[in-house]
């Protein structure tokens, strides 16, 4: 029984507000056991760099006595989430997987609910993920200029700087010279970057050497 409270807009014959009255609405329904049961109610992809992707699975089991043909409500376009495989018919006792991909297009939090229907039941799984952008800082290079000065022929100078990962996830960097310079007699590049690529843990620093 659902109580519905109301008060007439008109005043009574004495000019006073009418008293609050109540009506009762009877509601009836029937509950049934779910025939499809997902292994998770929340699929959390965590933090994913923008334009990268991660794939996870939802396992759905048929705990009923009849075959169930799964179908789904379309996900929001450009919402970051997509289902990669076709939904199948599940026999009693069988388990099928739903492959979900998260590919954020911007730096923000994404949330959506995946609705899965069959002939006799409806289940849902909440999808969650955060798009983040890789961000690093260069330490030990005043004014962003690393000068080697004058170097004698057949000699070399080695300098170093530090790359700091200020993101909350590992970042892989690649270093490359934009200008090749004059090739020496040994046919070696004037500047050698050591290492040219590496992965920095979240909040960590990584030393890099440049040999001229």
Structure classification: mainly beta
The major β-sheet equals:
4 strands, antiparallel
Percent of residues in beta strands?
over 45%
Which overall shape is indicated by the principal axes computed on the Cα atoms? Answer: elongated
Straight-line N-to-C gap: 84 Å
The H/E string reads EEEEEEEEEEEEEEEEEE
List how many beta strands DSSP finds. 18
Q: Mind telling me the CATH superfamily name of the largest domain?
A: Immunoglobulins
Q: What's the alpha carbon Rg, rounded to whole Å?
A: 32 Å
Instruction: Tell me the count of domains.
Output: 2
User: Largest sheet, order of strands side by side?
Assistant: 3-5-10-8
Attribute tags:
212 residues; mainly beta; Immunoglobulin-like; 2 domains; 4-stranded antiparallel beta sheet; 4-stranded mixed beta sheet; 46% strand
């Amino acid at each position: 029984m659902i109580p519905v409270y109301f008060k007439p807009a008109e005043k009574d014959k004495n000019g006073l507000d009418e008293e609050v009255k109540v009506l009762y609405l009877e509601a009836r329904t029937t509950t049934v056991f779910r025939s499809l049961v997902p292994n998770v109610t929340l699929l959390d992809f965590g933090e994913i760099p923008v334009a990268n992707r991660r794939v996870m699975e939802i396992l759905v089991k048929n705990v009923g006595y009849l075959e169930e043909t799964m179908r789904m409500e379309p996900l929001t376009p450009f919402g970051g989430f997509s289902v990669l495989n076709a939904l199948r018919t599940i026999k009693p006792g069988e388990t099928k997987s739903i492959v979900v991909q998260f590919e954020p297009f911007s730096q923000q939090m994404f949330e959506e609910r995946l609705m899965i229907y069959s002939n006799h039941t409806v289940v849902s799984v909440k999808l969650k993920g955060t798009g983040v952008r890789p961000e690093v800082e260069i330490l030990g290079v005043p004014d962003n200029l690393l000068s080697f000065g004058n170097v004698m022929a057949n000699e070399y100078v080695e300098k170093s700087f530090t790359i700091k990962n200020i993101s909350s996830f590992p970042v892989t960097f690649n270093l490359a010279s934009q200008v090749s310079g004059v090739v020496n007699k040994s046919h070696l590049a004037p500047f050698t970057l050591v290492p040219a690529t590496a992965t920095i843990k979240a909040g960590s620093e990584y030393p890099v050497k440049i040999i001229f």
